[in-house]
Amino acid sequence: MANLNHVAPQQHMLRRFSLPRLLRGGQTYGVVGTLVALIVYNLVSTPRFLTFDGLTEAVNVNLLQVAPIAIVATGMTLVIATGGIDLSVGSLMAIAGAVAPLVFLSTLPLLSNPFIGITMGIIVPLLIAGLFGLFNGFLVTTFRIQPIIATLVLFIAGRGIAQVISNGNIQVFRGSNFVLLGSGRILNIPVQVLVMLIVIIVVAWVVRTTTFGRYLLATGGNEAASRLAGIPTDRVKRTVYVISGVLAGLAGLIIVAINSSSDASNVGLNGELDAIAAVAVGGTPFTGGQARVWGTLLGALLIQLIRFTLVTKDIPLPVAQIINAAIILFVVYLQRERKS
Amino acid sequence: MAGIVSSKGERSAWLANSFVRSRLLMQRQGALLMLVLLILFASLRYDGFLTAFNIFHLLSYNSLFGLIALGMTFVIMTGGIDLSVGSLVALSSVVAARVSPHGLLLTLAACLGVGLGVGIINGWAIAWLKIPPFITTLAMLLAARGLALLLSNNASIVVDTTSDFNVLANNFTFGFDILGIGAIPIAVVILIIAYAVGAIVLNFTRFGRHVLAVGGNEEAARLMGLPVERIQFTVYVMSSVLAALAGALLAAQTFNGLPTEGVGWELTAIAAVVVGGTLLSGGMGSVLTSLVGVLLLGLIFNILNFENGRGLISITSFWQSVIRGAFLLVVIILQSRLTRTRGKVGQTPL
Question: Model-level pTM?
Answer without folding.
Answer: 0.79
